[in-house]
Amino acid sequence: xxxxxxxxxxxxxxxxxxxxxxxxxxxxxxxxxxxxxxxxxxxxxxxxxxxxxxxxxxxxxxxxxxxxxxxxxxxxxxxxxxxxxxxxxxxxxxxxxxxxxxxxxxxxxxxxxxxxxxxxxxxxxxxxxxxxxxxxxxxxxxxxxxxxxxxxxxxxxxxxxxxxxxxxxxxxxxxxxxxxxxxxxxxxxxxxxxxxxxxxxxxxxxxxx
Length: 209
Hints:
The chain has helices spanning about 25-60, 90-115, 125-155, 170-209; strands spanning about 65-75, 75-85. By secondary structure, it is mainly α. It has one domain (about 50-205). The longest helix has about 40 residues, at about 170-209. The relative contact order is 0.16. Homodimer and heterodimers. Belongs to the Casparian strip membrane proteins (CASP) family.
């Protein structure tokens, strides 16, 4: 009769089994997640800069108004008012920068909400940002050029077309739109950086797959 060599463990014996530990994610994945978070924070910052400069540019352009009285003959004077609505380029400026400010506000909030999620902005969101940021960059750059051209005529005039300069008479008005154009240039640079950032982050996310 064969003997059974198996022995049962005594009651109350301590089990020698060691529970398996959860393995930590590789260091490269942790560093990538931290890098994407930094890019998301930079994205929010640039959109805040875009909103602030666009809004300030609108305020400066809308408040660019000055009234002057000119003596045209002895005892005869006329009053003229210069304001942004007299120039199609400046009307376009206010409209374009209003769109840019609204877009910066909405996209900034979306970027903040995405920042709260693990991994930061998703690849799909970054793809949409690239398209919309590039579209807004074209709009803001075009209004900056158009307003700058109109401002140069006001500052220097054009002797070939017999357009006289007005900034020697309407100093406050010209300072307002000059500051507004400078802010729109900063807005355009912010959008350019946002496009570059979105393309860079999107390429990193695609490379991970």
